[in-house]
Specification:
The chain has one domain. It is built from 17 helices and no strands. 70% of the residues lie in helices and 0% in strands. It comes from Riemerella columbipharyngis.
């Protein structure tokens, strides 16, 4: 379990230390992070009431205020050819939506198309339109903390937050405006809700609402078109009716938005990710990756899925089959230049699910707390 934590949560943070030429501090960070996580788990029962309701207000409010000041500073680094283009993609697509309605009339630059897909951009457009983009990450952090607190309790909410921000790359994406962290938090929140709500009893109206939101998330990148199918496979053993409704609604949302904006744009920019993936992995690697992904899902559908399988682990593994090869391929393509390793961002997609899997396995009873004392 600690090996998993180090490989998927701590190792991607290496990019940050190399980027700012403080790579010698990475080993200190690695040691301190492991010691603190080990200590926390060994003394876990002491922390039922730590980080209660007032702390969460201060914590999220403080991060929002920090982001108000830090995000513009980081964003300004693009003027000297540095910084992330993830926020530019969301903001330019929102501006294009307001001016022409086509979403993809503008490009970041001649070599950098916009990657985020249509429904995801439209859903989050208010953050860009009203100059509140610095609140994008805090908003989705608040959502997932509310969801985890509801279904896992206060202590595991604390553990999730601690593990998430032990990863420096999560902090980096939080403050540089990249949409990959908000997507990951939103997607994990939906995963928890679908698992906890739709597996219990048939509820068509909730299935439709969650299907709409899942469809929006599945358009965030064109390569995530498989998300509705994965959740159908997972939910089917629990509740077939909910699984059908969730799949149909989410798949139609994903299909409609992608096809509509593909037809009205001269160049549907999100599609460049398919060619980028082929370029990073080569023809044989790309074909091998697709084959492996299909075989895993066939095995999942035919043999593995029962009501006893760990939901979050399966989703994390499914996405890892897609993200890890592309992440490594990007690092190889950059000749192991960690400062240009954009593929590290892909690993953030699976981090929240692996953390949920980790804390879900801990045998801790949820201690009820008095109103006003816990988040």
């Amino acid at each position: 379990m600690f090996l998993m934590v180090n490989l998927l949560i701590l190792l991607p943070s290496l990019r940050f230390f190399i980027k700012f030429s403080i790579y010698h501090l990475f080993f200190i960070y690695l040691v301190l992070a492991n010691i603190s996580m080990y200590y926390l788990l060994k003394n876990i029962k002491k922390y039922y009431n730590i980080f209660n309701y007032p702390f969460w207000i201060i914590f999220i409010g403080g991060l929002s205020i920090l982001n108000f000041y830090i995000y513009p500073i980081i964003d300004a680094r693009r003027n000297i050819g540095k910084g992330s283009t993830g926020d530019d993609a969301m903001i330019l697509a929102s501006k294009s939506l307001m001016s022409t309605g086509k979403l993809y009339d503008l490009m970041i630059d001649a070599k950098t198309p916009i990657s985020p897909g249509p429904a995801w951009v439209i859903f989050n457009a208010p953050f860009s339109i009203f100059d509140l983009y610095f609140l994008l990450s805090p908003f989705y952090l608040l959502i997932i903390l509310l969801v985890i607190r509801k279904f896992f309790g206060n202590l595991k909410t604390n553990l999730f937050t601690y593990y998430l921000f032990c990863s420096v790359i999560a902090f980096e994406l939080f403050f540089n405006g990249h949409d990959m962290l908000p997507f990951s938090l939103a997607f994990t929140s939906l995963s928890i809700l679908i698992n906890k709500v739709l597996t219990e009893k048939t509820n068509i109206s909730i299935s439709i609402i969650l299907g709409l939101l899942l469809g929006i998330c599945s358009t965030s990148r064109i390569v995530f078109f498989f998300i509705p199918l994965i959740f159908f496979i997972l939910l089917k053993p629990y509740n077939y009716k909910n699984a059908i409704v969730l799949f149909v609604v989410s798949f139609l949302i994903c299909l409609f938005f992608n096809i509509y904006y593909f037809l009205i744009n001269d160049f549907y920019q999100p599609i460049h990710l398919l060619f980028k993936g082929k370029h990073l992995l080569s023809d044989y690697g790309f074909l091998l990756g697709i084959t492996g992904f299909c075989l895993f899902n066939y095995f999942l559908f035919k043999k593995l899925i029962t009501t006893n399988v760990n939901w979050y682990f399966i989703i994390a593994i499914t996405f890892s089959i897609v993200t890890i090869p592309f992440s490594i391929g990007d690092l190889i393509h950059q000749n192991f230049n960690f400062t240009e390793w954009e593929g590290a961002n892909y690993l953030v997609i699976t981090i929240p699910h692996f953390i949920i899997y980790f804390i879900d396995k801990l045998n801790i009873k949820k201690r009820p707390s008095r109103l006003g004392r816990s988040f």
